[in-house]
Structure formats: structure tokens, C-alpha cells
């Protein structure tokens, strides 16, 4: 896994300092959840370090985005608040702005791309926002949002490139270092950069020696691409849609270059494994973007070995159907779900013999498919594909052995095999 180290630079004056971040913490106190920061001994044993998880997926809208959005709204002059706000987002920022604007009595409109899933539109409307669908992309939706602000005289709440938003996100670092003062490394998801900027600015001011590692999806290396350290690619589909941002903002890029020590890239299988690990071990649901920190620990074990590491679980908004797919793929990767193709005599009793052998080996048959027309075997035989739930890889191999010893040719079908 790549770990790109960033050269230090001077941050621009308009970035919030520790005083502004502390003021943001006082401002939003009692209106957002001070989420737990708890040690995961099991994950620590797996990755060879000590790990504390910051559960931002336990916010009311299941994302850290509430912090920055609320801080921005609370800083609006009364006349600007009365005029209302506009935000552009296809997900967590939309819900954070909508929820707190409604609480504060501020009119709010959210512009979402045309292809935004219905569930996200519905959730945002339920939180009190007017939703306008415009633009084929996030960039086009942002243009419409800016135009709407100009027409209506409203304020724009940027999802990341805003000092008040950055300061609000930085309150996470204050809470983490208060809970665990001797953390050595903070591992933080990076999309547009608001979260990692705020955390790095606060953490470095409190503990100059602490290391901050940002994590991006390999398909969307926006920060590294801007710095010429990674190719600029159009962006393949990713489960980490919350950080699928083409490029950081100007303020956040300056903060990242001046305060973030390194950027790690994680691929899709690693992110999926991280989601499943958090579900199985911590019994917590993290969206793809929220789980990338755990994916980075898996890929950079030597870098984090023996250290005290804080990982931000930035959000938990993942579609149930997508989550079920991730879980099933996780079962396949760990060999707790396997497909075996068994050659059986195409005669009475053949299938019963095979299923009895699987049952005796304590395998659980989930699905059975006969392959007659497309089989290359004799017409007197049938290929039968069994999907079997097992305890682990050793158990799967034991089932294969028993079938083979009973004279039934068997082969393991790899993931993706038709």
C-alpha cells in the first residue's frame, strides 16, 4: 500500500487556529454528540498496535459532518441566518446542514445531483430541507447551488473548504486527545479535506510530535493528484463514496500540506474487509469512507506496529443492500462461504449422496444449481454447484476432501466464476 509523505509548508493565515477550534467546541457543545473514543483490544491484537476508535458514526445523522455544519450556522449573523442557507451535497453534509438548520429555524435548500439515490433525497427532506436536483455531477450541482445563493440572497455552506467548517471538524481531535492524551498517530479519512485539516490543525497545535496520516481511496487520490504524486484518474466506482472527491479545496490542501504527515491509499477489497471487521468485531456499522482508517492499518502494519493509534470512524451511512453485499463478499474472502462444483451421476440418489456427505462434515448448503446443458461432461453426468457455509478455510477443505474420497470429482469455484 502506498504511503506518500508530504513536505511541510506554511499554512495560510485564514485557516483556523487552536483558539478558533476550541471556540467551536464550546459553541457546538450539547448540540452534537461527544462521541466515544474507545480502545479496541481485538483490532489491536490483529494489527499489532494499540487502537482507539472515535465513533463519529454515532452522531444523530451518523456522520462527523454535523460539527462543521453547525459551527458555520451558529456563526451566521442574524440577518444572514434569517435569509437562509444553501448547501450542495449528495450525502452526509446535506443531512448535517438540514438537521441543524431546522433546529435553529434557518431556511435551508440542498442541491443534489440528478443521480442521487432516492433514500438520500428522502432522508434529507425528512430532516427539513428543500431538495433541488440539478446537474449530472457534484461539480454541476455545486454551480447550481452557487447560482441559487445569488438569486435568493442566501449563504452557501461549503462541505469542506470553509474556515468555520474546518474548525468544527477539528473539535474531534480535541476530544480524542482529551480522552487519550498519549496517542502517537491519528488516522483520518480524506475526501475534500475538511476533516483531516481540522484534526491536523488542532492535534499539531496541542501535540507537535503527533503524526497525522490521511487515507484516500485508490480510485480517488485527489490530494496526491493535486500534488503530482499520483495520476489524476476519472475515478472508478467506490464503496467509499463519502470521500470520492476529485480534488481538495484550496484551504484544505494548504492545511494538508502544512500539517498532515502522510497520505495512504487503500483499494476496494481492503475497504470492504474493514467494513466487515468493524461489524463483526466492534458490532458497529461504518460506511466505506468511515472504514478506510482500518483498511490503512491492515495495509501498513509495519508502519503502525507497537504504536498508539487513533482512528476516526467518520460515518455510518451505508445502504442496507450495499452492506449485505459487502458482508457476503467478506464471507467468500474468508472462505466461510464457498462454491464447490461436484460431478454427479445423473441418476436417482446422486444428489442425495453429495448432500449427505456435506451434512456429515457439518457444512450448511445455501444453494444448489444443476449444470446439465452447459456441462462438458458425459450426458450421463451432471455438474452440480453447491454454495456452502463453512466455519473457515480448513473446514471448507475438509468438505472437499470427503467428497473426493467418496469418488465424487470436486473443484473449488473462484469468486466471479459464472
What's this entry about, in short?
The chain is elongated and about 80 Å long. It has 17 helices and 15 strands. The chain is 44% helix and 19% strand.
Characteristics:
418 residues; alpha/beta; Rossmann fold; Alpha-Beta Plaits; 3 domains; seven-stranded mixed beta sheet; four-stranded parallel beta sheet; 17 helices; 15 strands
Write the layout of secondary structure elements.
Blueprint: E1 3-5, H1 18-28, E2 37-39, H2 41-47, E3 50-55, H3 65-74, H4 78-83, E4 85-88, H5 92-104, E5 108-112, H6 118-126, E6 130-133, H7 138-152, E7 155-156, H8 163-179, E8 185-189, H9 194-206, E9 211-217, H10 222-226, H11 250-259, E10 262-266, H12 268-282, H13 288-299, H14 301-304, E11 308-313, H15 320-333, E12 337-345, H16 350-360, E13 364-371, E14 381-389, H17 393-405, E15 410-413
Helix pairs in contact: 1-8, 3-5, 3-8, 8-9, 9-11, 12-13, 12-15
Explain what you see.
The chain is an alpha/beta fold. The protein folds into 3 domains: 3-63 and 162-329, Rossmann fold (3-Layer(aba) Sandwich); 85-153, Rossmann fold, CATH 3.40.50.1100; 335-413, 2-Layer Sandwich (Alpha-Beta Plaits). Helices cover 44% and strands 19% of the residues. The chain is built from 17 helices and 15 strands. A 7-stranded mixed beta sheet has the order 1-10-9-8-11-3-2, sandwiched between helices. The chain has a 4-stranded parallel beta sheet with strand order 6-5-4-7, with helices on both faces. α5 links the parallel β4 (85-88) and β5. α12 (268-282) packs across α13 and α12 (268-282) packs across α15. The longest helix has 17 residues, at 163-179.
